[in-house]
Design goal:
6-stranded antiparallel beta sheet; alpha+beta; 22% strand
Length: 175
Amino acid sequence: MKKLFVLFFLIACCYQLNAQTKLYIRAYNLYGNKIKNGNIIGTTDTSLLFDAKGRDSVSFELAYTKIGSIKTKRSRGHDVIIGTAIGTGLGIFGLMVSSGGTLNTSGGVSSLKTDINQASLIGLIPLGALIGGITGMTKKIETFEINGNLEKWKVFQLYYQNRDAKKKRAEETTQ
């Protein structure tokens, strides 16, 4: 069981360390309602260009005059859901391994080993959610208030360009 916890912890760490190559953002309108979320492939002087689901073509262009705010990265709830899914998967995997590859769903008297296995499954689900919540709290989500203002749009544009330049320099040094 100790090995399962170590494995779960390593998977959670790998999930957090897996950096996205493109910037994931959530764009909100002037009233605070989410307009669009996804990876952006660039900006122009007046708009934000969203990725077309894995292809480097523009699928959606959003004018800065319609943007109230921009938040970088995914929400913290996403990490909690992913952590819960990993915890559930590891719990089921551990239950399958300890029971010889089959789950006994028949009624009757359960053994102590079965009870411990089921308790570990139930314990890994909230543990996964907890680790997901902790990784979510360590994320540095940045918020840019645009409110249709060109100067504020230029600040976000500069942020995106600097981030892109840092990424290119890092790629050049690793090659």
